[in-house]
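From: lab user (bench 3)
To: helpdesk
Subject: output format question, protein + 2-acetamido-2-deoxy-beta-D-glucopyranose

Hello, I'm new to running complex predictions and I'm not sure whether the block I got back is the full result or only part of it. Here's what I submitted:
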Amino acid sequence: MVDANSTSCLLLIILAWTVYYLLNKLRAHGHNYPPGPRYLPIIGNLLDLAKLHGSTGYQRLAKEFGDIVFLSSFGKNILVVNSSKTAHELFEKRSSTYSCRPQSVMSHELIGWDFSFAHMPYGERWNVHRRMFHREFQQSAATAYHPIQAEEAHALLRNLLQNPENWESYLRHNAAAIIMSVTYGLKVAPTDDMYVSLAEKALEGVGMAASPSGFLVDFFPFLKHVPDWIPGASFRKKAREWHAATIGMKDIPFEAVLEELKMGKAAPSFVSNLLNEQEPEKNGEVEIIKNCAAVIYAAAAESV
Ligand SMILES: *[C@@H]1O[C@H](CO)[C@@H](O)[C@H](O)[C@H]1NC(C)=O
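Helpdesk reply: Thanks, we reran it on our side. This is the complete output you should expect:
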């Protein structure tokens, strides 16, 4: 049973590999791509991609090939932009061409990050999320959050005065406390906060999936269907764990706010303000509010 399955799976992989290679050849033909490392038969720049860990790998590429470097492997094209000048040129001045986001099977489909408007493709769905975010965080609305920041700044100063040697954990706590308060009106524990740990776990997966050589499933999307017992399919187990953390990160603090709103004791926050405005349930906006809140919270957890 298992043998027959493994053989057909292997054949399938070889077939898909060949098809990808041929398609790739066809696509590359006639295109004028920027310079980059030599494109090897079948694997393309896979070996170069595997070497791209940390900033030194990218610096080496720029030194050798210039300010814009092109790599490609199995249909995945990657452009490495070395300087802020070029980044500004492409992503600011020509943002209508380049503001789309690549879609990763691992992070979007398996880990569940398709909720995040920071990772969404440019389009209507992205637009409604961005507008919701802007409603509470445009400059005129953001001043409403000054008291929260002042209160946490005072707490930080008091802590620093008492135990200056703990400055690092106080600074981390300060960032997490402000953002959880602004986003959900929730307090965080001084150490090992549940919400912060959840976000860190959820971010671990997208962080790894975002690396250019990330996961094989991003080169061969059909691999998302392989059964768990196939050697090398451990990414599925990891993806499930990260998916659970991602759902928890989105749902748990949000539901805490719903509960507080029901009891009439929710503090003003991004979530409670938007839920109190107009009628989000009727307009199908609850999910959008929840998604935007999770992006803010995740971005903050990453920076603490
Ligand atoms: C890459 O960027 C660095 C930092 O901005 C710069 O010093 C270097 O000259 C750039 N390399 C190329 C090839 O443009």
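A quick orientation on your result: The radius of gyration is 23 Å. Let us know if anything else is unclear.
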